[in-house]
Design goal:
The protein has 229 residues and is an alpha+beta fold. It has helices at 3-17, 48-54, 122-129, 200-212; strands at residues 58-65, 68-75, 87-91, 106-112, 115-116, 138-145, 151-157, 162-170, 176-185, 214-218. The protein is globular.
């Protein structure tokens, strides 16, 4: 099971239990079940969302992700998800009440806090993202070693139901890194009997987010506690 998907789902459950607006996990690594209801465009890669986000300008953005500072380009107008506790997250579903039309289609872009992890190769990264390589709905598009020690795994499920780009960004300490994830959900709707092939235009757009992420420096450490009086 994809641990990140599990953690995100737990946040959703907690919010719903408290009576707040429901938030949707975007289904990273999660199976084929989808919510019914309008507002998504099915597996046409998010319907009108595609034109909106692929035409959006990219804004250079400086953030602190755990104990490192990162500069990354974020699409203009994509809201920050302040409820995400594992790093920095921008998501089309922020503030959406799913009881009034279903889950929205579009992007979710995330930088997870540095963690101790090592991958022998891109295949190992792929199996961490999606342990079951034999899922019938899974299409593995690319497993790549990139300059600077980065690794990238690109995948899709049910054609365009979920499109996913995950990049491992190593830090100066070789035992640590930042995981960048760029995900596109098609939105609520039925999956057709013959899903279309993965949308290469959206995949290239998702790659831009992780390609732009550059670690600049370690974040400032918190000041030491004041000595006892």
């Amino acid at each position: 099971m994809n641990l990140r998907f599990f953690a995100s789902t737990m946040v959703v459950v907690a919010v719903a239990a408290c009576g707040g607006k429901k938030d949707e996990s975007n289904g990273r690594g999660g199976g084929t079940g989808v919510a019914t209801g309008g507002g998504g465009g099915g597996t046409t890669a998010g319907g009108g969302a595609k034109g909106k986000w692929l035409a959006a300008a990219w804004k250079p953005t400086a953030v602190e992700v755990g104990d490192v500072k990162v500069k990354v380009d974020v699409p203009d107008g994509l809201p920050a998800n302040d409820e995400y506790m594992l790093g920095k997250d921008w998501w089309v579903g922020v503030g959406v009440d799913i009881t009034k039309g279903g889950f929205p289609g579009g992007p979710r872009l995330t930088l997870d806090r540095p963690r101790t992890e090592t991958y022998a190769d891109a295949e190992a990264l792929a199996r961490d993202v999606e342990p079951d390589a034999k899922r019938l709905d899974l299409i593995e598009i690319a497993k790549e070693s990139l300059p600077g020690g980065r690794m990238r795994f690109v995948s899709a499920t049910n054609g365009n139901r979920h499109l996913d780009v995950t990049v491992w960004i190593p830090l100066a300490d070789p035992t640590k890194g930042v995981r960048c994830n760029a995900h596109w959900y098609a939105g609520s709707g039925e999956t057709p009997a013959n899903p279309p092939p993965p949308d290469t235009a959206i995949i290239d757009w998702l790659k831009k987010f992780c390609d732009s992420a550059q670690v600049t420096e370690a974040a400032a450490a918190p000041p030491p506690p004041a000595p006892p009086q």
